[in-house]
C-alpha cells in the first residue's frame, strides 16, 4: 500500500452514511433502515423537546421519517444528511403545531387564550396534570420546559437547546426576530420562576 493510499484510508470516514443515502434515494429500503437506526434517537429527542409529549413525539418522529423517505430524492448533499434531517424534523414539528392550532381554534378556545402565563403558573404547582408535587420536590428542567406555553417552548428549544439564531427561528416560525427574542425572554423568566420554587 502506498503512502497516499494509507493517508486516504485513514482520513476517509468509515461509515459516513453517504453510500446509504445514495442507496436509499434509489429505493433501497435496507439502506434507509440503516439511516433510520442511525438518526432516530436524535430526531425523537428533538421532537420530544419541542412538543413536551412523549406519545406525540413518537408520532412526529415517524412522520419525519415518512417525509424523509418521500423527499430523499430531493437531498442534494449540500449539507450532511443529519443536518438535512434535523431541519426537516423542525419543519414537521412546526407544521404539525400550525395544523393543530388551526383545528383547535375551529372547535374550542386555544390554550394561550385561556391563560398562557396563568396556566403555566398554576400548573407549576403540580408535577403532571392533577397530581401535586410532594413538598420540597424540585421541578427538573425537562418538566419546566414541558410546562412552557407552546410558542415560548418552541423558541427556547430552537435557540437555547438546538442553537439556532433568532433570524433563523423567525424565518422558520414566520414571525419577526423581535417576537422570537420576546418569547425567549418570556421562556427564560418562566423557567427561572418554576425552577426557583
Characterise this structure.
It is a single chain. This protein has 197 residues and is mainly alpha-helical. The chain folds into two domains: 16-107, RNA polymerase sigma factor, region 2, helix turn helix motif (Rna Polymerase Sigma Factor, Chain: A); 117-195, Winged helix-like DNA-binding domain superfamily/Winged helix DNA-binding domain (Arc Repressor Mutant, subunit A). The protein is 70% helix and 3% strand. The protein has a two-stranded antiparallel ribbon. Strand 1 and strand 2 (131-132) form a beta hairpin. Helix 2 crosses helix 3 (29-51), helix 3 packs antiparallel against helix 4 (54-71) and helix 4 (54-71) crosses helix 5.
Short description:
With 197 residues, this protein is mainly α. It has helices at 3-11, 18-25, 29-51, 54-71, 81-107, 117-123, 141-146, 150-161, 166-173, 177-195; strands spanning 126-128, 131-132.
Fill in the keyword field for this structure.
197 residues; mainly alpha; Arc Repressor Mutant, subunit A; 2 domains; two-stranded antiparallel sheet; elongated; disordered N terminus
Mean pLDDT: 76
Q: What is the CATH fold-level name of the largest domain?
A: Rna Polymerase Sigma Factor, Chain: A
Whole-angstrom Rg: 21 Å
Question: CATH superfamily of the largest domain, called what?
Answer: RNA polymerase sigma factor, region 2, helix turn helix motif
- Portion in helices: 55-70%
Q: What is the helix tally?
A: 10
- Biggest sheet strand order reads 1-2
Question: Which overall shape is indicated by the principal axes computed on the Cα atoms?
Answer: elongated
Low-confidence stretches are 1-16, 109-139
| Sheet of most strands | 2 strands, antiparallel
Structural class by secondary-structure content: mainly alpha
In terms of quaternary structure, the protein is single chain
Number of domains: 2
Would you state the CATH class of the largest domain? Mainly Alpha
What is the string of helix and strand elements? HHHHHHEEHHHH
- Can you name the CATH architecture of the largest domain? Orthogonal Bundle
Separation, N- and C-terminal Cα atoms:
65 Å
Amino acid at each position: 500500500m502506498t503512502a497516499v493510499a494509507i493517508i486516504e484510508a485513514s482520513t476517509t470516514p468509515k461509515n459516513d452514511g453517504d453510500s446509504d443515502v445514495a442507496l436509499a434515494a434509489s429505493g433501497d429500503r435496507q439502506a434507509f433502515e440503516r439511516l433510520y437506526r442511525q438518526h432516530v434517537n436524535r430526531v425523537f429527542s428533538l421532537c420530544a423537546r419541542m412538543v413536551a409529549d412523549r406519545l406525540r413525539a413518537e408520532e412526529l418522529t415517524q412522520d419525519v421519517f415518512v417525509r424523509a423517505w418521500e423527499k430523499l430524492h430531493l437531498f442534494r448533499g449540500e449539507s450532511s444528511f443529519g443536518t438535512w434531517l434535523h431541519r426537516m424534523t423542525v419543519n414537521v414539528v412546526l407544521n404539525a403545531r400550525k395544523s393543530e392550532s388551526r383545528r383547535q381554534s375551529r372547535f374550542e378556545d386555544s390554550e394561550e387564550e385561556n391563560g398562557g402565563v396563568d396556566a403555566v403558573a398554576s400548573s407549576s404547582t403540580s408535577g403532571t396534570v392533577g397530581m401535586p408535587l410532594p413538598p420540597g420536590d424540585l421541578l427538573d428542567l425537562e418538566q419546566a420546559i414541558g410546562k412552557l406555553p407552546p410558542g415560548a417552548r418552541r423558541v427556547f428549544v430552537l435557540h437555547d437547546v438546538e442553537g439556532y439564531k433568532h433570524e433563523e427561528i423567525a424565518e422558520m416560525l414566520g414571525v419577526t426576530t423581535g417576537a422570537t427574542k420576546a418569547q425567549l425572554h418570556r421562556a427564560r423568566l418562566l423557567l427561572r420562576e418554576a425552577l426557583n420554587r
